[in-house]
Amino acid sequence: MALLAAAALSINAHAAPERVGDFTLIDDTGKAHQLSKYAFNKAVVIVSQASGCSMNQENIARYKQLRTNWDHRGVSFLMLNSSVDDERADIRAEEAVWNYDFPIMDDDAQLVANALGVTQAGQVVVVDPVRMNILYRGPMPGQWARAPLGQTLEAIVADGADSRQMDTVTVDMEEAEGCALDFPVADQYVAEAPDYETEIAPILIERCVGCHVEGGIGPFAMNSHMMIQGWSPMIREVIMTNRMPPMQVDPAVKSFKNSGNIPTEERQKLIHWINAGSPRD
Ligand code: HEC
Prior knowledge:
Layout: H1 2-12, E1 24-26, E2 32-34, E3 43-49, H2 54-58, H3 60-70, E4 75-81, H4 88-98, E5 104-106, H5 111-116, E6 120-121, E7 124-128, E8 133-138, H6 148-157, E9 169-170, E10 179-180, H7 184-191, H8 196-207, H9 225-230, H10 232-240, H11 264-275
Parallel strand pairs: 3-4, 4-5, 8-9
Antiparallel strand pairs: 1-2, 3-7, 6-10, 7-8
């Protein structure tokens, strides 16, 4: 009976769309963007960008036209720079020359690119900022109205649209449509997850345990691997949204001695470790 029911369900069940966790990134002007704060919109279009990527440069007019067509229908537009070659200053320099005129989020840890499944500059991702579902990942088509990108936007802005009933539409990038990005850190940690005892625990001890200790002001004590593993989804969220450690300031703007900033390499270690299932060894 149980087997029969399961089989029937898998036939009828709708393949749920891919999801993305909330995140906060700072753009080229120093402004923070948190995905969930875009929840007053029906969709957010995120264009992956890299300095010197000719496919980005050649598509500027198309990006702007897409925005003109959709921003009055509840769609917001952001760019995402996940290139290991670009510092904040490089992003600003590229913007000064090319005038993209979109906020360009600085994904220096590349963690948002990983979360969105972005592998190339030029890739376009459509996200529902309310349900955090990924609805489209693919190229910027020349004639988007008839292409899957336009169809996806049309579907999500429609009255009563529910992204849980939609699929993630993935369109492969042709070589001429994007600029390949390197992910050296992700590659390293996917091959071998960071080690709990020598790499993860020392970060938590230095950055978190001061408050997250028995009787401390943090709401739970990080006193065992089990505890940290159990809290891992929440830990990922507070790291991705810059909520913990508290008191973070944009290091590109100012550096305070007591700011809670956590170095990029440490954030990458924590998130890749959690993505690997928070293993003990
Ligand atoms: C200065 C003290 C302090 C430090 C350092 C600190 N936390 Fe916290 N943390 C808190 C407090 C207070 C709360 C509860 C209030 C809140 O959510 O802001 C909290 C809440 C949390 C939560 C639960 C969030 C929720 O929404 O329930 C997580 C997860 C967390 N911290 C992880 C971390 C991690 C990971 C670090 C280290 C990278 C860290 N914290 C460092 C004080 C701290």
